[in-house]
Specification:
2 domains; 51% helix; five-stranded antiparallel β-sheet; Alpha-Beta Plaits; 160 residues
Length: 160
């Protein structure tokens, strides 16, 4: 089962550092994310979102591979790759996986100018080690899909 955790940060730099940290924790097998996103609001109030998973690019890459294989069977690998990539990109664009885009924009709209948020869809983690790694960045728990008790535990652990 996956859990959604949205953490708020005082600025975009801290949120970006946490996104890099999540990659490092993944390499150490302490954190397994199904999806992650970074949202921030600039001083002029504009909202920006950067997602870590791009279904369009993934679909295009997969489509190109399958298109090439089918193209090889019919002696037209370049044409097959092009058609496969285009088909895969369209399929990826139409597929909404991971964290809902509308939800990300809704939460980002509540951020004060200059602030940022990290959205994480967590498959599996080593909670104590992940919380210890996050604590220096001073995150605020904005939303979770955790039970009330687990959410309160997370808030308390991050405030130490």
């Amino acid at each position: 089962m996956t859990d959604l955790v949205v953490l708020g940060f005082s600025d975009k730099d801290k949120a970006e550092a946490v996104m890099r940290l999540s990659q490092e924790l993944s390499k150490q097998e302490l954190l397994d994310l199904a999806d992650a996103a970074l949202a921030w609001r600039t001083q002029d109030g504009k909202i920006h979102v950067r997602q870590s998973f791009n279904p369009t690019a993934t679909g295009a890459a997969g489509g190109a591979l399958w298109g090439t294989l089918f193209g090889l069977l019919f002696l037209m690998p370049v044409f097959g790759a092009a058609v496969g990539a285009a088909t895969g990109a369209v399929a990826g664009k139409l597929t909404d996986v991971g964290i809902n885009d509308a939800f990300i924009k809704e939460i980002a709209g509540t951020l004060e100018p200059g602030r940022a948020a990290v959205f994480a869809l967590v498959r599996r983690s080593t909670p104590d080690r992940v919380r210890d790694a996050l604590r220096p960045f001073g995150p605020t728990v904005l939303r979770t899909s955790l039970t009330k008790d687990r959410e309160e535990e997370l808030v308390a652990a991050l405030q130490r």
